[in-house]
Amino acid sequence: MQKVLVNEKGMAWITCNQCKHTSVVDLNGFCEGINVIDHKCSKCEAVSEVTCEFRKSYRKEVSLQGTFIRQQPGEELAGRIEVTDLSRVGIKFRTRVTYDFKPGCILKLTFTLDDRNKTQVNQMTKVKWVEGRMVGGEFVNQDQWSQKQLGFYFMS
Question: What is the pLDDT averaged over residues 7-16?
Answer without folding.
Answer: 84
